[in-house]
Amino acid sequence: MARKDTAADAANPGRLKQIALTYKMTRRADKKIGLVLAAVGISTLGVFLAIGFLIGHPIYLGILGLLLAFLASAIVFGRRAERAAFGQMEGQPGAAAAVLDNIGRGWTTTPAVAMNRSQDVVHRAVGKAGIVLVAEGNPNRVKSLVAAEKKKMNRIVADVPVRDLIVGTGEGQVELKKLRTTMMKLPRVLTGPQVTATNDRLRAMGDLMSNMPLPKGPMPKGMKLPKGGPKAR
């Protein structure tokens, strides 16, 4: 029992430190976060206290109001912290991959399945919605990467639907902060076993490509890599 208490005591400072770091990070992008949280907490508590005095139970309603004020402040803090995080990630290479890694259960994400020298990149996510190619970078350049990856997917898993999304703020693109919601709203077309089978086929093909023997030293003149070979990562 003592060990459990010690572990819990050791974990609490870590949680508090994480909350403090999150607050500092949020405050850099949202200067009014402190005032907003205070206003939400005080107004929630004030409403319940007023109701408590009206019905003759200020103590009970005050305790309930205090708990709900803390809950409301926590919800508002979480949303504004998430918005601040997305604001700082916007436009950064690999931001979409970070969102996909935290999309939730049921999805398998493979970052940077295709990339070019300009750091335009395509990530792949597999779930019950099928295969989703998520691209980030210049929309004109990244389209060719997506098209090439789609052709490869059609050769490997022709029976699985392949969708594509381009992360950005332009027309027809998906904003980074809406990427997770957009992915979760996609219609489900595969069963659990089909998702597993698709991941196995893609994993096997990836292992085959990575283990493909290549000649050492300079490439002979006129020699070309086979189509579908490994891309720069």
TrEMBL record:
<keyword id="KW-0812">Transmembrane</keyword>
<keyword id="KW-0472">Membrane</keyword>
<dbReference type="Pfam" id="PF13829">
    <property type="entry name" value="DUF4191"/>
</dbReference>
<feature type="region of interest" description="Disordered">
    <location>
        <begin position="210"/>
        <end position="233"/>
    </location>
</feature>
<keyword id="KW-1133">Transmembrane helix</keyword>
<feature type="compositionally biased region" description="Low complexity">
    <location>
        <begin position="219"/>
        <end position="233"/>
    </location>
</feature>
<dbReference type="InterPro" id="IPR025445">
    <property type="entry name" value="DUF4191"/>
</dbReference>
<feature type="transmembrane region" description="Helical">
    <location>
        <begin position="33"/>
        <end position="53"/>
    </location>
</feature>
<feature type="transmembrane region" description="Helical">
    <location>
        <begin position="59"/>
        <end position="78"/>
    </location>
</feature>
<protein>
    <recommendedName>
        <fullName>DUF4191 domain-containing protein</fullName>
    </recommendedName>
</protein>
